[in-house]
Design brief:
The protein is built from 3 helices and 6 strands, in the order αααββββββ. It has 185 residues and is an alpha+beta fold. The chain is rod-shaped. The structure holds benzylamine (ABN).
Length: 185
């Protein structure tokens, strides 16, 4: 007999002497149960929570999704941006309704009506451009609710309203509430 065979035979006999068939079945059963329970163990996903995906600030022109973003002035989904087309001044050193320092609001604007889900009312909104600096480039947002084609200029948002300013460089756009829209009688 090959010496290796003898080693295996001896160790098999020694194991057989020390264990019964019942204990062998019990340990096989324990191993199978452990393997079946492995997927139920908790998994640490904290690393993913610490490196969240970058929030999408870019406008898509799609309908606003339900949730907190309708209240975030730096989000394109903010309710009063429903017909804005441009860079959000709230991301460019200004606010949702004030121009960043060093820029001037356009005296002529385009007008829209946006529904505020917070109080259920419709508001008339003026979209002024802020002028006098090069394009901000942050938080581009293009939404077109109730926007009208170019022949209704005051209802069209694809116009550089800085054209009437002495410094006609377009920087960003704000959304100023003018009043509550009365329901048509
Ligand atoms: N009113 C925003 C804008 C500015 C320049 C060109 C198109 C639209």
């Amino acid at each position: 007999m090959h010496p290796l065979d003898r080693v295996f035979e001896n160790s098999a006999r020694s194991i057989a002497k020390r264990t019964s068939r019942r204990s062998l079945l019990a340990s096989v059963g324990r191993m199978l149960t452990g393997a079946a329970l492995l997927p139920l163990l908790p998994v640490d996903r904290s690393a993913r929570a610490q490196t969240p995906a970058a929030p999408a600030k870019q406008g898509s022109g799609t309908a606003p999704t339900a949730g907190k973003v309708v209240d975030d002035p730096q989000s394109c989904e903010y309710w009063k941006y429903c017909a804005i087309d441009g860079f959000l001044c709230s991301c460019c050193g200004g606010t949702s309704n004030s121009c960043p320092p060093g820029t001037q609001p356009s005296p002529i604007t385009w007008i829209g009506t946006c529904h505020n889900p917070g109080d259920g009312r419709d508001y008339i909104v003026s979209y002024n451009d802020c002028c006098g600096k090069v394009s901000c480039g942050d938080c581009f947002c293009n939404r077109n609710e109730r926007e009208k084609p170019m022949y209704r200029l005051s209802r069209n948002n694809d116009v550089n309203w800085c054209m009437a300013n002495t410094e006609s460089d377009y920087h960003c756009s704000v959304s100023v509430i003018l009043g509550v829209a009365e329901p048509e009688k």
